[in-house]
Every structure is written in C-alpha cells, then in structure tokens.
Amino acid sequence: MTWKFLALCLLVAAGGCAWTPDRLDALLPTDALLLGEQHDAALHQQRHRQVVDSLAARGALAAVAIEMAEQGASTEALPRDASESAVREALKWNEPGWPWAAYGPVVMAAVRSGVPVLGANLPRAQMRAAMGDAQLDSLLDPLALAAQREAMRDGHCGLLPETQLGPMARIQVARDRAMARTVAGAVREGKVVVLVAGSGHVDALLGVPRHMARELRVRIIQWPSQPPKKDYCAELKKQMTPTM
User: Fold this and answer.
1) Which of 29, 107, 109, 242 has the smallest number of Cβ neighbours within 10 A?
2) What is the pLDDT of residues 121-131, one digit of tens each?
3) Best CA proximity match to 176, nearest among 204, 217, 218, 147
4) C-alpha to C-alpha distance for 35 and 48, rounded to whole angstroms
5) Domain extent listing, the chain
C-alpha cells in the first residue's frame, strides 16, 4: 500500500494547528486526502474548509466525501449556485446528528467550486445487519480487531456490555469500508478526493486506510485534539442509567 501517514499539524501556543496553503505541497500528488477531526472542535472544521479551498483554487479537487451523510446521497446533480437548503436536501442532512453550522461551510465550498459532495457513511438501515455479520471480523487482523473493540469500549466510556463490543466494532468496520469505497469510486487522475470524518475513521491501522486499494495513494491528516466543550461520558452515563 502506498499511503503513508503525514502529521503536518503543528501545535502552537494557542492550542491550534498552523495551516497555510503551501503545506499542501507536502501532500501532493495523492489520490485521496483523509482529514480526521474531533467532531466538537470548531477549529478542525475551519481547517477542512481551508484544505478544500486550497485544492479547489489549484483545480485539484475531485470530490469531498463526508461521514456526515449516508452513501447514495450526493450533490452531483446540483449547480454551483445551489441554495443551502437544496444541498441539505440532496444530502438528506441529519441536523440533530451533524449541525449544519459546523459542516455547511466545507460542504458549500465544495459545491461552489463545482465538485460533488458525497455521502460516505454506512446507511443506518444497514447497521443492524452489520452488527451480526461475522465476516466483517476478518477484515482486520486479530490485533487490530481487538484494538477496534477496545476503541468501542473507550468511545462509550466503558459503559457498553462486553457482549456489545464485538457488534459495535463490526459497525465501525462496515462504516470504514463504506467510506473507503466511496472515496475510491470518486478518484480522478490528477485530482484529490477529500474525506472528512472522525479521527478514528482515518486511523492508519484500524480505519478507512485498511480498506483502500493498494495502488491508491492515500495521505492522512489528523488535527491535534482540542479540550471537549462538555463531558460526554457524564451525559452518556446519565442516558444509560435506568431511572427509578
């Protein structure tokens, strides 16, 4: 596999990540650029917009694939001047799950540049089947599969029953495979497909890169972690604690 991890983000005193368009030179040429984010970090979404703008200005942007919409949803049929409401409708946008205020700017930057935005996530209707599909376990080696299950434990604050770790890991693998297929299907010679997803999905050992074809050139950027705005584990524990 010809992809390699490139950590181009520099921690600065303000806790941000220095990014200038010329940093893109170190990533090119490539077929796909995977951007891993912390979903509640506004700085990360700002960086996504900057990367997309930089590629579009070079005429090097093939498509933007996003975790925030399901496979099959696309803006491909829309014109550059499509309204935001038309874009949201085309992507079947889930506002409660993914605030448009956070992701609208990068989506609209792609639309305005004349390239499609593609839903890349596994459709929710397929998730139950994925939970019971033992064949998904074989897509990761035993050590990676164990690490994926541990990631599910940590991601759910240690509150998931042991019996649910395997099925939840299968969903994660299925989602990563769906995103990889979406990205691969959008590859164009001389241009770059950008994937915007959570940092776990672009993990070089566990995520989308594991499911990419060996002949594709893949680069990864994972922005530095930001302090969470709220205690998600406390909220999750409250949701999962039965009320008397």
Assistant:
1) 242
2) 999 999 999 99
3) 204
4) 7
5) 4-238
